[in-house]
Design a protein that fits this description.
It contains four helices and ten strands. By secondary structure, the chain is α/β, with parallel strands linked by helices. It has a six-stranded mixed sheet with strand order 8-7-4-9-1-10, sandwiched between helices. A two-stranded antiparallel sheet has the order 2-3. Strands 5-6 form a two-stranded antiparallel sheet. Strand 5 and strand 6 (72-73) form a beta hairpin. It is globular, with a radius of gyration of 16 Å.
């Protein structure tokens, strides 16, 4: 695998957090269904913060993840990637300035067959801080993390279904 020093890669990260049920035996809870899809023991996190300074002045009035790419807002692409993978509980982490725009556009997530939760990153703190904000919400579940400006054509459902522990990173040179 040849990765450039400063890659312009698109990534989804699956992260494993040890499972524990209330009895502490480590058994996985049973899967449930929601909106007609099998729910995995995995939640999704879309990181949609940042100032979008390289796209200024377009980002003066909105977040870059809400700008159109072809026929839909950029944020739809990672959201649909997670939904197609059967991940139905998704958190969108956004900066304070345009958080209401995400809520107005995406609502509860019902239109996509998912349940959306929102978290505000008060100031630019990077990916690590954004994931820290999602820690309580994700609990002991495995999570799929995708950047809000990523567009995947590949189906990651099988990878999500078979993920057990550790980390899996998808990288594609662009």
């Amino acid at each position: 695998l040849n990765i450039p020093k400063k890659p312009k890669d698109r990534q989804i990260r699956f992260l494993s957090i040890p499972k524990q049920n209330r009895s502490g035996t480590g058994e996985k809870p049973s899967t449930t269904t929601w909106a007609g899809k099998e729910a995995h023991d995995m939640k999704g996190i879309i990181l949609a913060g940042g100032t979008g300074s390289r796209l200024y002045p377009l980002t003066k009035v909105t977040n870059k993840h809400l700008l159109p790419v072809y026929d839909k807002p950029m944020i739809y692409y990672p959201l649909q990637t997670l939904a197609r993978a059967g991940i139905t509980e998704i958190m969108v982490v956004s900066g304070r300035g345009h958080a209401g725009h995400f809520l107005e556009l995406l609502g509860s997530g019902m239109e996509f067959g998912v349940s959306l939760t929102y978290e505000i990153q008060e100031q630019a703190g990077g990916i690590a801080e954004a994931l820290g904000l999602a820690a309580r919400w994700s609990g002991n579940e495995n999570v799929a993390v995708i950047l809000g400006d990523n567009i995947f054509q590949e189906d990651i459902r099988k990878d999500a279904e078979t993920f057990k522990s550790g980390a899996k990173i998808f990288i594609k040179e662009v």
